[in-house]
Structure formats: structure tokens, C-alpha cells
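Homework help thread (please don't just give me the answer)

Our assignment gives two proteins as sequence + C-alpha cell strings and asks us to describe the second one. The first is just a warm-up. Here they are:
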Amino acid sequence: MPRIDFITPLHRQTRRDYLARVNEFSKAEAAKVAKRFDREYWDGDRKFGYGGMKYDGRWRVVAEAMAKHYGLKAGQRILDVGCGKGFLLYEFTQVVPGVEVAGLDISSYAVEHAKEEVRPFLRVGHARELPYDNASFDLIISINTLHNLPCFDLDRALKEIQRVGRANRYIVVESWRNEEEKTNLLYWQLTCESFYSTEGWEWWFKQCGYQGDWGYIFFE
């Protein structure tokens, strides 16, 4: 169950003004809006979330790296828990023609506005109760999603990811290694419910019997 980093180069492409995040608009009000996970979160003003999530191909390099690392082949099945608009799943279909993809997200807005090529394979649902059979996916990914769950749902979600996978699993969550990164995360986040250091996350993985890989997003 090693730590692997596929995401940091992509994360560092975006510049963040942490102090502006808390000084220019009510952080509490922004969080209330963001946690609806509707249009404002995905395609509204940056203070409420992504500030407009449009397809631009940036996830292709991530899909290529994961496909190579996990040896993905045509006919294998990939599930994205917290798939958003399905951009990464779309890239998997381009990088490994013939793979089967499925995605789950709590946001009906994201699913309705997903990349049209993969939209039929996405559904609205919650990570704590995955609507899939045991051991039904060759790779399960969850990128920047599980830290949005309170501890009682996090426990169930990790166990569900373990249950429906039959081979490889990869989780990415926001975390910190020092007080500066912890403070920056608290300033920047809008939807997090689970705040843990890297040691805390690894305790959770072990506690829930998660047998897969993981990575972190740090706010440096």
C-alpha cells in the first residue's frame, strides 16, 4: 500500500492567494454555497469553488501515468468515486481504447454537465454506499473527494472502495506535513470535513482495511 504521486504537477499549475481567500469574502458564506455542489461550485465565481471547470486536456498526462503504472488494458473496468464532470475517465478511454469506465458523484449538476462521451457511464450517488457488486473493478480511483466526508462516512467509503475493487485502488486527499501547509489548507478549502495530517490519513487507511495506493495534495 505505497504512496504514489500522479497529481502534484497538475496541482501546481494553479496559483492560489490564501489570504485573499479569507479576507475578500465571507469564508463561511462561500462554504455554504460550495457545499451545495451545484453550478456555483463548478462553474461559478472562483470564491465558491473551481471558478469554471472546462475540459482542457490537462488530465491526459495523469491518465497516461496511471495507465502505465497499473498496466491497464482494453476490457478492464475503471471506477472514479467523485468523478465530477468525468474528465479523467474520458482521458482513460483515449489513452487505453477499449477500457470500460464508470463514475459516481454526489453532484447532479456535475453529472448532467459531464463530458458527453462518458456521461452515459456516470451516475449520482454517495461514496458511503457504492451501487456496484463486490470485486467488480480493476482500478478504482478517488481524487480529491474523500476529505469532503465526515469521519462516519469516510469510514464507510473506504470500506466500500475496498469492497468493489478486485485489483488496484488509488486515492488522493488533501493533507499537510507542517503547520504552514495546515494553515494554507484551512484558508483555501471550502468543502473539507476531514482534516488530517499524512500520519492521520494513513491511520484511517489501516483502520478501515484499505489495501491500495494513495497520494496527497499539499498547499505549499
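The one we have to describe:
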Amino acid sequence: MPAPSQPSADLLPVQRRATLAYRALRLWAVPLLHLLFRIDVEGRHRIPTDRNYVLIANHLNWLDSFAILAEFPAEPRVHFLGDTTILITRRFQWAMVKSVAGFIPVNRKLSPDTVLFDHVNRCLQRGGVVALYPEGNYGPAEGELLLPFKKGFAHFAIDNRVPVLPVALSGMKDLWLRKSVRMIVGEPIESTGQTVDSLVAASEVRMRELLPTYQDPGGVKLLRHRLTHLF
């Protein structure tokens, strides 16, 4: 049986405006997330609201994307890159993705994935925000950037003349009920006049500056295993 084809970005509402389904989801999902965890956001005023951008963050666990979606404004709409190979074989989950959106399909079997560039460019040209993790995988430890940055985000920003917004995440590697986690938003890095290599280097330096030193808070850690491995 042939493998399902990758969906076209035109099937997904990639755009600046938040969908009604996404707004409805936020009404209950954001309070639930705040019930489970204490999320402290520093530099919220640095989040652009009058222009789109490419968001980069260090990657620690499943909570990263949910925390960004919960704490960032509904508009301009944040879209994450993700592999749809499993999703499109599961009708309910795929229906949710198509209705809620905030998603740009990645085909990991293509190298380079030229279709991905078309999808990202379309999203940015429509005024949406593209979010990705330049390390490509979960970082091995809190408070450190040990994996080299992939350069895709810099290409996206330069090609579309939008800034890069660095976001440092802390405390999300190991999770438990009511744990305090941090999100630190840095100053946007303009892509104008930059080369891909210079933008990657500047972004990596900024991320290292933003990442705080992490110390385990200790104390009671309710539902630690379940919440850490929830997804």
C-alpha cells in the first residue's frame, strides 16, 4: 500500500489571523497549562505584534511548544514545523491539526526538503510566524546549547526579510505538578544585511546569553514521571 502523501500547505490555514478553532482551544487549554505549571515569562514586551518573524528556541521537552503557544499572542499566528507522516494516518488527530492549524508539514525523507521552503515562505508572506528549534532535537541538558544550530531558520528570515526572535526555555526538561518554568524572550535580531552564517552565529550568541543557569528546585515532585513523558 503506498505511503500517504505529504499535505499541501494550501490545505492548512497558514496566515497571520488566528483561526476560530484555535481561539476556542486557547479558552480552556491555556488555563489548564497554568494549572499544571507555573510559567514565568521575561521580556514579553519584546514580542513583535506589528510584524511577523521567525521564532527560535532551545528544545527540552514536549512542554516547549505548548508554553510558547500559550504565552505568545494569538496573532500573528505561530506555526510550528512538524512531521505529518504519523498524523495523516490518524483521522481524528489530522482533523484537529487542519482545523486548529499552527502547523507546517516537514518531509524528513526529502533532503533538501524544497517543498518545506515553499510552505514556510508562504506562511511568512501571509503574515504568519514560523517557530522552530535550530538544534533539531531535544537538548541533552538544561542551561546549555550543546548541539550545533541548523541553518534553515536563517535562510527563512533572510529570504523573507523578517527578524529572528530568540526565546530561551528553562526548567522544562524534567516536569512535575506546579513546577516553575521560565521563558525568556530576547531582542529581535534583524536579518537585513546579514549572511546566513552571520545570522546563525549572532542567534547562537544571543541564545547563550539568554539561557539562565539551572538549579533543581528540589521539594515534592508530584506526577514527575507522568508529566515528563506525557507526549
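TA reply:
I won't write it for you, but here's a hint about the kind of observation we're looking for: Residues 16-228 form a domain with the Glycerol-3-phosphate (1)-acyltransferase fold (CATH 3.40.1130).
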